[in-house]
Amino acid sequence: MTIPQMTGAMGDVVGMKRTDPRHFTDDASVTEAQGAEGSFGQLLLSALGDVNGSQLKGMELTQRMITAPDSVDVHDVTLALTEATTSLSMTKAIVDKALAAYREIINVR
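RE: above sequence
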């Protein structure tokens, strides 16, 4: 029995249709690894900035409620503080899981 030798790839070329501009980029100057690393880093910094922003907004509304109670609605303060607490709790949970995963990887030896 003779096994045929493959000298090159064979098959059809399938064209990719872009349905959403976020699917892939046409920028050839950014390599795939750099793009993924950069986008993850930017995503992480953006998420942490959003958490910080919600904390600052809650603190600012609380201070305004103390200094000028008629200028702010108590419901807005409650919602801002709840959003800040929830986002901080989620961030803490993610950090804890990441540290646990790191410790598990280190202890695999």
